[in-house]
Amino acid sequence: MPRISPQADRIYRDEMAAAMRATDAATRWQHLERAHILSQPDPWRHTCNHAAMLALALRQRDRREAFGQVVRLIVAAPGSVMGRYPVGNTGRAAAGLMTPMPIPDDLADALTR
């Protein structure tokens, strides 16, 4: 099963914790998106990240985002296990389900270790 490096795991946990502490939705989304990029190789973290995104979308009453997160929850773990996920994708509904995106430099460094 794919795993993430210890450094990527630490940053993932920091980003998820920062998302939960954030006082505004925009900041929370930013942290969840960064955590998503790191979580993609790991089925459990990837699924947990989409569950957190779904919870935020529901709190915001954003139907489009919530629907997108339900779809992503279904495919997250299998995609991670098979290594079929769009590298760098932020995980949001507005990002194409299979659209690769640039990885921020600090996260790219953690993913390559």
TrEMBL record:
Give the matching Pfam families. DUF3703
Entry-linked InterPro entries: DUF3703
The protein in question is named DUF3703 domain-containing protein
